[in-house]
Structure to design on (655 residues):
């Protein structure tokens, strides 16, 4: 009821504005205030305007807008609606002249002249409402206020400034800092751009700044690192808003402000995703994510849901993590139903809401997996379930094999039987020339994916990437715990280097690779430059406000079993090319490296693992890897068809 009254008030104001604008249009056209013989023409035009303009306003959602919180978009929409109304009035005049020659003549230039005063008079009251309630400071700074500089005078900085002034009454935005010299002196939301990053120490001293907020979501890690170093030298605390990849709706608020993390210092340029290709892959399809409660799997679930699948099946073994991601996504879906879409149509849901299913299952149990696939009939699989911790798998090789190898085989078998169209396995750079049990198990799983792709002719593929920042069990997670405990921070070797990506950017590239794959490929993500683990440890200690040597020591403990100083991205024998996406490489004929007797070797490996024969399990796993690195052998059709009962059924047309 209140909203209807709000719209009715603006409708009445618009009516007076349109009458006035029509009079101004005639006065300018006739170059006099006395309309004389044009009074009837004026009345006819005004009546038409009072019908057409409000109608177009209503259709465009102008009367549904809450102008107190309006942005540039809402005001530009008002201008567009008025231009459209002017064109409609001009067309109506032409039709009137042709169909009703006896009616008073309306000059054709009047609708065009009418648009400008109409725009000014309809926009003015809305600007008054917006300005009256806009979050401009209404009090002078008080002792104890948090005095803030915002680094970045772009759209994100403006959003943060507006959000701070709306919600944080004890925070004063002293000004902006931006490296663009053309923005110097510009005012944004009542605050002035005072200089560039080099001026931060001076501004901190002059204005008693307590905090610098870095509002640069697209800035690379090198830039963030430099700004953080400047702020540390100036003795001011630093906050940051996350990168674009970490947001779902692309909008920033005060709730997104957080401490600077190591992910920010290693951030790269935002990934350009082919939204159309990924959307065409996922929209309206049944998608399953294994390991859906894990760090990678849960992020895949978040991204997949944005592309509106018909169903999302979250499969995992840990009930708590699956429960958590299901609740998060369920809440997001409910919120998105009430979120206005960019076109102002009232809701953000242009399609029916996807169904969420949670499945607690262990991929090592073939019968359970087949039952789940028969029930949900997934069309696309993202296989992220795996044991990934190198030292733990080195001590527990049987578990690495049963989960990473046999679990993958069970998923592939069920996928072939139930007609899964696309299977994307999340692999690792440790599968390249592996020296660890974990890497060897992932390499064996890759071979199974290639074999299934060759056998079925479907788009089954693997995507390799290195360490992901923030994943459970990563070195970053370990360093955080060690720092919290007061140290020391343990580094295996001074020269150890690793490739790192943030979880969101890795998942974006996985989805992009999934859209590119046709079957049998290995995609390798461009990981950028390798990072020295020693430098990573130092950065994390300093971000915690501590100093190496004074507060926390770094100690070297030596390489652990299965570890290498440097990880590799490419396997000898795999011919890599860049894809149409500049951050993704492809080995188009990776399936040629599959040994002809791979399934027989896997069967022996299964027997050894299930009988808990550790030595034989390790020996067979290494043999499979060695065979895949030697000259490739093509399996005969008979060998392939004898592999599994499901594959024999497929060949006989029984599936």
């Amino acid at each position: 009821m209140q909203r209807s009254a709000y719209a009715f008030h603006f409708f009445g104001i618009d009516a007076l504005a349109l009458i006035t604008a029509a009079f101004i249009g005639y006065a300018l056209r006739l170059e006099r205030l006395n309309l004389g013989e044009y009074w009837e023409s004026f009345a006819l035009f005004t009546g038409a305007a009072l019908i057409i303009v409000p109608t177009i306003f209503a259709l465009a959602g102008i009367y549904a807008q809450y102008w107190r919180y309006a942005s540039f978009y809402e005001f530009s929409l008002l201008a567009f609606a008025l231009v459209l109304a002017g064109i409609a009035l001009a067309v109506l005049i032409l039709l009137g002249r042709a169909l009703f020659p006896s009616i008073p003549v309306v000059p054709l230039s009047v609708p065009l002249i009418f648009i400008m005063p109409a725009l000014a008079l309809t926009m003015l009251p809305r600007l008054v409402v917006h300005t009256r309630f806009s979050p401009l400071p209404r009090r002078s700074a008080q002792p104890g206020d948090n005095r803030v500089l915002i680094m970045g005078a772009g759209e994100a900085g403006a959003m943060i400034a507006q959000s701070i002034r709306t919600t944080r009454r004890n925070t004063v935005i002293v000004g902006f800092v931006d490296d663009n010299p053309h923005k110097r002196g510009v005012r944004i939301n009542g605050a002035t751009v005072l200089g560039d990053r080099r001026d931060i120490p001076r501004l901190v001293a002059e204005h008693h700044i307590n905090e610098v907020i870095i509002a640069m979501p697209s800035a690379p890690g090198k830039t963030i690192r430099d700004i953080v170093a400047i702020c540390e030298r100036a003795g001011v605390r630093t906050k940051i808003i996350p990168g674009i990849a970490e947001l779902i709706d692309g909008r920033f608020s005060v709730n997104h402000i957080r401490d600077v993390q190591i992910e920010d210092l290693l951030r790269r340029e935002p990934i350009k995703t082919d939204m159309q290709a990924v959307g065409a892959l996922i929209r309206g399809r049944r998608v399953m994510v294994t390991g859906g409660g894990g760090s990678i799997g849960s992020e895949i679930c978040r991204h997949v849901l944005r592309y509106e699948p018909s169903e999302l099946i979250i499969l995992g073994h840990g009930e708590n993590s699956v429960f958590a991601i299901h609740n998060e996504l369920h809440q997001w879906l409910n919120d998105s139903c009430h979120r206005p879409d960019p076109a102002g149509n009232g809701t953000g849901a242009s399609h029916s809401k996807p169904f969420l299913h949670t499945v607690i299952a262990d991929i090592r149990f073939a019968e359970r997996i087949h039952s789940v696939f028969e029930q949900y009939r997934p069309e696309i699989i993202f296989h992220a379930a795996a044991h990934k911790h190198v030292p733990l798998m080195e001590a527990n090789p049987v578990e690495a094999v049963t989960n990473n190898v046999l679990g993958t085989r069970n998923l592939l078998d069920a996928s072939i039987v139930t007609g899964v169209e696309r299977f994307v396995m999340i692999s690792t750079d440790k599968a390249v020339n592996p020296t660890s049990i974990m890497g060897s198990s992932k390499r064996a799983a890759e071979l199974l994916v290639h074999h299934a792709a060759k056998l079925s002719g479907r788009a089954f593929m693997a995507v390799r990437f290195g360490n992901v920042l923030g994943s459970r069990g990563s070195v970053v997670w370990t360093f955080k715990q060690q720092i919290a405990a007061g140290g020391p921070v343990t580094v295996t070797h001074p020269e150890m280097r690793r490739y790192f990506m943030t979880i969101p950017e890795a998942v974006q590239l996985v989805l992009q690779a999934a859209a590119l794959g046709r079957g049998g490929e290995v995609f390798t993500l461009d990981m950028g430059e390798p990072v020295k683990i020693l430098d990573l440890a130092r950065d994390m200690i300093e971000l915690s406000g501590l100093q190496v040597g004074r507060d926390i020591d770094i100690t070297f403990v030596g390489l652990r079993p299965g570890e290498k100083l440097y990880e590799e991205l490419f396997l000898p024998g795999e011919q890599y090319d860049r894809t149409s996406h500049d951050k993704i490489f492809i080995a188009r004929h990776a399936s040629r490296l599959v040994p002809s007797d791979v399934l027989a070797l896997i069967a022996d490996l299964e027997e050894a693992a299930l009988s808990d024969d550790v030595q034989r399990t390790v020996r067979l796993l290494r043999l499979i890897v060695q065979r895949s690195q030697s000259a490739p052998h093509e399996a005969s059709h008979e060998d392939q068809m004898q592999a599994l009962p499901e594959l024999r059924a497929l060949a006989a047309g029984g599936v």
